[in-house]
């Protein structure tokens, strides 16, 4: 039994004659007769009574036909499903993201993407960067957004973001009127830092040490979004990435600092697990939103222009 035999049988039932079935399928009448005969032999069931030049379904043939209709209904659903996949109307995405992007920016992007693709399901995990890399290699997720640099040959990396950290200040801070800042401007100021377990903390500490800046280490927190919130409350100054700044743009003043510490994020996925079509569509959408956000933050910081995202 094969699909061509089932097609011939189904077409004959639908149009009522072998000639009609042949015309419907674009084959010869003998081909239809042969396919039906082969199907009857394969199933060991008589499908039609042949009398007076007419084909009439036997009771057994009618039961077989009902199952054939179920089969073709399933085939039609597969075709429709494939079309939906091709046109990114459906799909599943599993994403892991570092907190800086995952607490505000990415949920907003997911909201807008799902509004355009309501039948796409998305899972978002907020994780530290080393864990994200492990999950990618283990194929627990489709792709991740994690801090760079890193050294693994089994992960494909797209440089998603490469831009300096912003200085964040309370809106009434004396430095808020400056267009740009220097590391020396932080000397003696109460500074809100990341905790020592965060790798960025070590980069920032080394940066200020290199410039011989003595900050007053007043508060520590695990997330840059919390740094912005504490700055907004007037408890000190700090550094934050553009995504965290955007989430608090109405409550803090952001200024570029030169020189500064680079904020680098990679969009990464396993080299042995290509992205799905809906995954590629989401990433295109994600990059558009990234560019919009970075330009918005640059404008708010008094330095309008294009971002260094890629």
From TrEMBL:
Belongs to the LysR transcriptional regulatory family. Keywords: DNA-binding, Transcription, Transcription regulation. PROSITE patterns: HTH_LYSR. GO terms for biological process: positive regulation of gene expression. This is Transcriptional regulator, LysR family. InterPro entries: LysR_HTH_N, LysR_subst-bd, NocR_PBP2, WH-like_DNA-bd_sf, WH_DNA-bd_sf. GO terms for molecular function: DNA-binding transcription factor activity; sequence-specific DNA binding. The lineage of its organism: Bacteria, Pseudomonadati, Pseudomonadota, Betaproteobacteria, Burkholderiales. Residues 1-58 form the HTH lysR-type domain. Gene3D superfamilies: 3.40.190.290, Winged helix-like DNA-binding domain superfamily/Winged helix DNA-binding domain.
